[in-house]
Amino acid sequence: MVAAFVLIKVAAGVGWSNASAMHKALHAVPGVKGVHFLAGPTDIIAFIEVADQKAMLESLAKIRAVKGVGSTDTRMVWPV
């Protein structure tokens, strides 16, 4: 199992009126277990858990394709 937190910045010019649609679209991405909107330099954080690195790359590509996503910063979770 591979897990990551994805820090998402909303694209410039996209208003918060699109938040509900973005929330729904992000939850529809395979492996996304949680989506939270934040206050601060990061607008959204998503938690992904998938079977392997290939599935992670596929999920990240789908997140980046969501309308309104400007940029992402992925933080892989290391098992302890």
Question: Which spans of ≥5 residues are poorly predicted at pLDDT below 50?
Answer: none
Main sheet attributes: strand count, strand direction, barrel closure? 4 strands, antiparallel
Number of helices: 2
Q: What fraction, in percent, of the residue positions are helical?
A: 25-40%
Strand order in space, largest sheet: 2-3-1-4
* Strands, count: 4
The mean pLDDT is: 95
Distance between the termini: 13 Å
What's the Cα radius of gyration?
Answer: 12 Å
Order of helices and strands: EHEEHE
Q: How large is the share of residues in beta strands?
A: 35-45%
Task: Map the helices and strands.
Layout lengths: L1 E9 L8 H9 L4 E6 L6 E7 L2 H12 L4 E9 L3
Antiparallel strand pairs: 1-3, 1-4, 2-3
